[in-house]
Amino acid sequence: MSTGQVFAQNTTDQWTFTLRNAYINREFDSTDVKDTGSWSQAASLFYKSNMIDTPLEIADQPIKVGVDASVQYAVRLSDDKHVSDSVLPFNTADKSQASDHLKYGATLKVGYDQTLLRVGELWLDTPITSVDRSRQLLTSYWGTNLQSQINDQLKVELGRVEKVSPRNEENFRKFSKTVNGVKYESDGLNYIDLRYQFSPSIKGEYYFGQLEDLYDTHYASLEHNWKQPKFTINSKVKYFNAQEDNRNLGINAGNFGILETLKVNNHSVGLGYQEISGESAYPLPDGFLPELYFINWGTTGFFKENEKSYHLIYSYDFKNYMPGLKATLKYSYGNDFKAANGKKNEESESSVNLNYDFQQSYLKGFGMQLIRIDNQIKYGNDFSETRFFVNYKKSF
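Predicted structure:
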């Protein structure tokens, strides 16, 4: 669910043009596993219309209408590696990466007071349906969504999402879950999301999602922000629960996580713990749909059956020395899960994330991001991954 800005109906049309050059390469230590990756260039245009008054009124307030639209296009600049890289569409029949990639959609909006109804392409921020910005083109969804600011404390979102267009696919398709090589489809996701601001420093959320014929998800969280003159401590507690819906898919899992983050001046330090419980790994829909709400999320997810994971994250803002530059270091360790050979397994992931937004007026809108990831697993395939992005954004 988006922030309160969703309910501020814009008075002018808004256009956003973006360029994104993405180099992504994953190298496996084992020669038996092919390296994956690609180099691509994208150009995207996003449109949000002004909300226009209609002749229809309720309690002397007009019903407003508007439209949104998007076009995303990417072209591959690198040679075809003939292996799926989760960035570009991949043809499994002839083992080829697509040479280009086109996604588009449109949304009808109907607004009244602090309520907004959207039908068509949806950009969602919920535990099952989030927008993945970690690769090239963005994930989007298709369905109906109703958001309402009930009062100063409570925001409510209801929705039925019928289809998804993952980051590496062009078209919208049904949600699905593959279990033991068998693909099961869902006719849609029905959900409700409640967010409540208990006080200026405490907020909570409850979410229920029903992926029809697959599984149900419950999510609850509590967040506290303690601000002091010289430091800030942010505390998050989250719990997920997933249970299969009518089919014998073997889905029965919980996920408990806690994260404490201390911010002092330009420094930020976080310590997190996450534990998967139940009788299965925590389920994710097919199509590289990440679970960004997890306390600990990485390239391997740390959501395997019975896995316990710990992570330490440190960030520094160089604004006093080089404005626009930020660095983040993260180390994650997971254990107590089983490998395919039945033995107890363990894994770790370390990453460096550098972001720089150009401050010069003639380069306004340009930014660069470099991510280096090293993943190791006791029984499995170790790999290293490099991601380098050059971004440009212009709103008008």
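Summary: Residues 1-173 form a domain with the Porin fold (CATH 2.40.160.10).
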